[in-house]
Amino acid sequence: MVSLTIIDRAGQENSVDALPGQTVMEAIRQAGFDELEAMCGGSRSCATCHVYVEGPALPPPGEDEDDLLDSSDHRRADSRLSCQIRLEQALDGLRVTIAPED
Ligand code: FES
After folding, report:
1. Residues near ligand 1 with C-beta < 6 Å?
2. Model confidence, pTM
3. What is the CATH number of the domain that holds 58?
């Protein structure tokens, strides 16, 4: 299991256990956070799975992810698309904040 802390838009912290191989988006949706829309289902074309991440270092976003994040008014240095982060044990302890809606 990979333990995540998910911070919702109300600022509430929630502990979530996810499986290695799942994406962060899948883990958030499966845990019942419907405020993360993820409209495209993870095909990297909507940016409604925007989150802020802190904790274990992640590889940098690819060009497509970077372009989509640029479309958000709420982009920050720690912004990522949660559907593009595949969980592995090394990401245990990741803290993920659901970004404001655009
Ligand atoms: S779910 Fe659409 S880009 Fe991530």
Report:
1. 25, 38-40, 42, 44-49, 81, 83
2. 0.97
3. 3.10.20.30
Pocket test for ligand 1, best of 29, 49, 72 (most atoms within 8 A of CB): 49
28: CB partners within 8 A, 6+ apart: 6, 16, 36, 38, 49, 51, 82, 96, 98
Measured CA to CA, the distance from residue 75 to residue 79 in angstroms comes to: 6
- 66: CB partners within 8 A, 6+ apart: none
Q: What is the mean pLDDT of each run of 10 residues along the chain (102 residues)?
A: 98 98 98 96 96 95 97 97 97 98 94
Owning domain of residue 88: 2-98
Pair 65, 18: CB distance under 8 Å: no
What's the 69 CA to ligand 1 centre distance in angstroms? 10
Number of domains in the chain: 1
